Amino acid sequence: MDSRDRYLEEQYLSSKAYENAEVYTSSEGNETTPLRDLDPSSVQLLDIGEIQKEDGEVFRVGYFEVTLPNGEKAILTVDKDGQDMSLDFVDDEGNSQKFMLTPRMKREIFKFQVEAKMSTEELQDALFPSSQDEMEKEIAQDTLVPKSAEETIKKIKEKNPEADVREVNNEEQQEEAEKQEPDEEEIEEDNEIEIPEKIKDKVEEIRESEGAQLKHVLIARNPSSISDQLIDTAGLQDNGGPVYCLAFANADLSSGSDRIIFVQGERVVDDRRYDEDATNMMNDYRHASVVENVTDKDSKVYYTDIDGHTTVADLVATPKDLRRQDKDILAEKLNELENKQKGILNSTNLTVDEKIEKCQEINQERLQLFDEYGLDIPNIRSEISADIDIGEEVQDDIEDSQQEDAETEKEDDDEEGRDPREANHNHERNLY
Known about the structure:
The termini are far apart. Strands 3-4-5-6-7 form a 5-stranded antiparallel sheet. Strands 13-12-11-10-14 form a 5-stranded mixed sheet. A two-stranded antiparallel ribbon has the order 1-2. The protein has 14 helices and 16 strands. With 432 residues, it is α+β, with helices and mostly antiparallel strands. The protein has helices spanning 3-20, 103-109, 120-127, 132-141, 149-159, 170-180, 184-191, 197-210, 223-227, 275-284, 324-345, 352-373, 378-417, 420-431, and strands spanning 22-24, 32-34, 43-52, 58-67, 73-79, 84-90, 96-101, 114-116, 165-167, 214-220, 243-248, 259-264, 267-269, 290-291, 300-304, 310-314.
């Protein structure tokens, strides 16, 4: 892999980690926060590694050094898609002090339900690696994530041969799920919201016809903030009443999205083409029941300045936020500029002055795009403006240096063009 490909891979992995990864807020492991919410200067990509699996496949991982707000340092490991795997808390010398799998990784490992007469700590000791080396060894052996309940039980018994553990059959799992799944009346009570009869009827209709369980109800008082998150308005009226967003567990497991239905007044929007965007939106607000505005928490703008520091900002437009479709178009345009700039910096046919000039033009194009789409991202705007100023200063220095070199060269040419006999004649005349 050449340096350019390596750079592109690093940029991709960094952006995916900012998009997907969460980290613990401390080594106590009680709370997590999205990586994107940390100060970008406290996150540094250390390396991209390869773990050779026994089946011949290569598992790629990224290692980030993260300094948490409380001052603790940890090495975050992510997979090729930037999904968090573990945090290894280290001291100032880089020695491991405490290794912890992230909640996402724990859920991935323990996704098959089993019944065991043992403590939670004993289960975790049996299923979860206790160090970075052990985790990577299990990745190589393809034993980190069990592929079935049977493999989960086998892994537990390898550590605890006498463990009383068995698989929970499907009927028991279904009964347990039904016990844990609140109905709409329970959601109404828990979230202190009133669900109109029309919405209750729709919920019951879907439950009876498809067996789909209601997962979450979100009410947005500002309807336009909902349509801003979708590929189009979905027929929702900006000046209409609040929008009720109902999330159902999708029976189509291959879709990866929930089934989302919108209700505004008498209008019911039940269209599968909105499911993906709406599921992302509902996941952002999974702990909320009523909000004034729904905003896109995932779309980001990344800018790496002339010193190599990356600044991250929410992709927010004013006075009215962009639709996701517009954000996708904008992201594509910004990505094109990013790739164009990388090509310029890697070019061997351009002088330093030419590279700076072309990069200045690209930064101006970035600012024009921000203005065109009404982006309110002052921190990145200021970084770009600072780079433009630095570029102009460097260009001035280059011009001054070139002018000085030209003057020096002219003086040297004048010296070389003078007749040496003239100098001798004058000297001899002075002597006399």
